Amino acid sequence: MPSPFVFMDLRTTDRDQARSFYGDLFGWTTTESLFTTAEGPWGGLTPLSEGDDRPPQWVPYAPVENLDEALAKAVELGAKATRPRVDLPQGSVAVIEDPTGATLALWEPRHR
């Protein structure tokens, strides 16, 4: 079965250390803010915001057809929206914390 995730984001307090660690461990190539392969970026390196007390973590992105509907359903099922919808050139994302406390990004790609 292929992965149900379309992107991964590493939220960290030290991007330089993360780049060095994952490069040495797996040979991963990085730019300032992305993990990349020959096919293009597959993950992000995002600095934790000042005052964000959550620990560094990997956040998977799950694709959805309709972000607003998926976000509403997640909240209805007991999730907490921790980052509201953000519209980007490539698509839109919102971040939830599931009822167990795990973080997940909901991703609606821009349809071309």
Number of beta strands: 8
The CATH topology of the largest domain: 2,3-Dihydroxybiphenyl 1,2-Dioxygenase, domain 1
What is the chain-wise order of helices and strands? EHEEEEHEEE
The spatial strand order of the largest sheet comes to: 2-3-4-1-5-8-7-6
Q: Share of helix among residues?
A: 10-25%
CATH class of the largest domain: Alpha Beta
Low-pLDDT stretches = none
Q: Assess the beta-strand content as a share of residues.
A: 35-45%
Number of helices: 2
The number of distinct structural domains comes to: 2
The radius of gyration is 15 Å
Task: Report the principal-axis shape.
Answer: globular
CATH superfamily of the largest domain: 2,3-Dihydroxybiphenyl 1,2-Dioxygenase, domain 1
Regarding quaternary structure, what we see is single chain
Mind describing the biggest β-sheet? 8 strands, mixed
* Secondary structure category: alpha+beta
Could you tell me the mean pLDDT?
Answer: 92
Domain VOC: 4-109
Protein name: VOC domain-containing protein
Pfam family, one: Glyoxalase
